[in-house]
């Protein structure tokens, strides 16, 4: 639902973290590749083993990941050796425990990109960085073990969403793919008999829904896979607070508060009053809050 947008500086930092970690395992990885023809072919094709192609493979962008995934599909009758899968699993587990928190911290991800409901934090314990979320394999590690430790196949996610995604094989967008923009938008619907109380944030006789007008197949798959509409139905208290504030704050008050902000005063004011950020990954429910205030801001005008 929320794309993970990485600037040039962040990309350099997280890939440096990854390379520093992987360099410790170069020798053992080469031994594994030399013994497994399928993995060798997937990574190097007809070329000989070389570190440049290996790092390119491990740090592939989302489009290249898709191409390699399709190559794996073509060769799905040829399996990696059990020893290879065991080795990659150990490398992944080591990366998850020792490096994931560092990556997430550099990306400043504080909320799950799949649901934007559940927060994820990093913290220090026993001299190591820890991470309260999980890493989802966008392409399943059970079906595509070849991609198990590719950096941009590992999506920081909450445990709820990671668990739900493991249950199904729905086609959704990789959050690292910034070429795609989610069209998922939340809105409220109400019972006409309760309209006045609803508009003043005094009634909970309304529903939280997702606008279905402009959704792609991938959007519908995300909604279904992560139960987004059902999960956000339970967020009426967030919507009520926004509705109440949208009616309570008059233009004079808004003008006084907006003077606190030097740049983009209206945008900053809305973030301050209604609890959302342009970078939704830095705050849980931020996307939902923004959608609801946009709905009621329009009604007031």
Please characterize this protein's 3D structure.
- There is one protein chain.
- By secondary structure, this protein is mainly alpha-helical.
- The protein folds into two domains: 8-167, no CATH class; 186-300, no CATH class.
- 51% of the residues lie in helices and 9% in strands.
- The protein has 15 helices and six strands.
- The strands form three sheets. The protein has a two-stranded antiparallel sheet.
- Helix 1 runs antiparallel to helix 7.
- The protein is elongated and about 70 Å long.
- It starts with 7 loop residues before the first helix and ends with a helix.
- The model has no long low-confidence stretch (mean pLDDT 88).
Binned, the helix content reads 40-55%
How would you describe the shape?
elongated
* Overall number of domains: 2
Q: What is the arithmetic mean of pLDDT?
A: 88
What is the H/E order? HHHHHHHEEEEHEHEHHHHHH
Arrangement of strands in the largest sheet: 1-2
Question: What share of residues are in beta strands?
Answer: 5-15%
Based on secondary structure, the structural category is: mainly alpha
Biggest beta sheet summary:
2 strands, antiparallel
Distance between the termini: 28 Å
**Number of separate strands:** 6
Indicate the low-confidence ranges by residue numbers.
none
Discrete helix count: 15
